[in-house]
Amino acid sequence: MTQASAGESQDRRDGFGRPEKAFIALLQRDFAMTGEEAAGLACCCAIRTLRESDILVREGERATAVDWIVAGSAFVSRFSQQDGRLALVDLSAGDVVGEMAYLRRDPDAVYSATVQAREGAIVASTAFAALRDNPALDRARVKLVERFGQIAAERLNATSGMTVDAISTGRWRERRLALHLGAINAVLALFVVLSNSMDIIRRLAPSEMSQASFLSVFHISLDTALAFLFYLLLRALKEPPRSLGLALSDWHRQVKQGLGWSVPALAAAAAIRFWLHPHEGLLSVYALGGGSNLLSAAGIGALLAYVVYLCPIQEYVARAGVQAPIMNAFGGTFARVGAVVSTVVAAIAFGAMHILFGVSAVLLTTCVGLYWGIMFVWTRSVLAVTVSHMVLGVAAFYWFGLIR
Questions:
Q1: Which residues contact 365 (CB under 8 A, 6 or more apart)?
Q2: Residue 32 lies in a domain
Q3: Which of 262, 342, 358, 400 has the maximum number of C-beta atoms within 10 A of its C-beta?
Q4: 72 with 207, same domain?
């Protein structure tokens, strides 16, 4: 047997095999008690064994005893109305439960959290009354109260630090959300200005360039600039890629999600196609009289540019740039509110990105943006939404003749 193994076996024998001696040693070490004082207190304690997940104390129940973790480990959890049961801290040998209620001397004091054994634990318990009323424990009680006061002070200090951090984090979230929404409003205003300045901008383009080519080039340039703007904004916000839905470690699953979410949207698009063009075959590319353009080299090239470049760019802006930071800013407590607000704002921004193509295009893409926004809330994956955008984009090109 190695020296490390021998030490582990000794610890287990002292903790689990000889819990009384382990408890006395704990009191001498952590509470500065003499052997006689520790032995006297140990005689007033009941020692019990907890199996994995056994509950030592339950949140909301009346506090009646002080419990020491003699061996093993436990964890503290508390119920939150918004987030369910939250694990707070781990306990190990030497930690105490119920000392705050003992110091308060309040007969109606209750446990503020639930404590459960993690993989099993040995616990020594003594009732408050036994500690307070037994004259034989006078000297031990003085040392207990002194140590309990130190523990309370340490916890108060830690709680104060956590409170300051929480307030600071909350204020930073508010500033971050204000900055982000301000940037979105500025971008939307830019789109409105550009949509009313197209005649002026068109004069700067070569005269031989067709209207369709001009709109395509201008749209690609605008989306590229927009993506760069949001890249700089996200850098300023210090958002990690995973929180923005940009992680690609499990890209296979994300692609499958994108394809799965595309099915109901394709079914809806097919129904609309059949309603608008009942005499056209489902696989026909001649809807709205654009078939010849759709099958041309220019039409196929435009489709490839749309799928390979514009779809990822637009979803990076709408999901990672607009929607994800708003969701993150609202935090866990207001996650549902953040999901609704971010989905609506992202859909409006996505619709505004198509304002150059007219009001009808804005309304249509806003509706589709709502669907993709819900999809992003569910998947938290920009790649999944991009795949769906690609699939529906191809359908829009060939079913509805969007290439002119």
A1: 350, 351, 353, 354
A2: yes
A3: 342
A4: no
Q: What is the mean pLDDT of each run of 10 residues along the chain (404 residues)?
A: 39 58 90 90 90 90 91 86 69 88 85 88 90 86 85 68 49 62 71 67 72 74 84 80 84 92 88 76 58 65 81 90 83 75 89 78 88 93 94 78 51
Contact 377, 257 (CB under 8 A): no
CATH of the domain at 73: 2.60.120.10
Are 128 and 201 found together in one domain? no
Rounded Cα–Cα distance for residues 363 and 105 (Å): 66
List phi, psi (to 5°) of 210.
-70, 160
**Structural domain harbouring 116:** 3-133
Cα–Cα–Cα angle for 14, 15, 21, nearest 5°?
Answer: 60
What count of other Cβ atoms lies within 10 Å of the Cβ of residue 46? Answer: 12
The last residue of one of the domains, among 133, 148, 181, is 133
Mean pLDDT for all residues in the chain:
79
Total number of domains constituting the chain: 2
Same domain, 369 and 283: yes
What does the DSSP assignment read for 97-110?
ESHHHHHHT-TT-B
Contacts with 68 (C-beta within 8 Å, 6 or more apart), sequence order: 23, 26, 45, 94, 95, 96, 97, 123, 124, 125
Q: What digits encode the pLDDT tens for the residues 75-111? A: 988 876 555 677 778 888 888 998 888 888 888 888 8
**Does residue 179 share a domain with residue 125?**
no
Q: Is 120 found in the same domain as 187? A: no
Residues 6+ apart with CB under 8 A from 340: none
Q: Is residue 152 part of a domain?
A: no
Euclidean distance between CA atoms 263 and 387, whole angstroms: 12
* List of residues 6+ apart from 125 with CB closer than 8 A: 45, 46, 47, 48, 65, 66, 67, 68
Residues 224-252 pLDDT 10s: 888 888 888 888 777 788 888 888 878 89
Which of these three, 112, 133, 154, is where a domain ends? 133
Query: Residue 163: inside a domain, yes or no?
Result: no
Q: Tell me: do 178 and 127 sit in the same domain.
A: no
**Residue showing tokens 């582990």:** 8
Q: What integer pLDDT is reported at residue 107 of this predicted model? A: 83
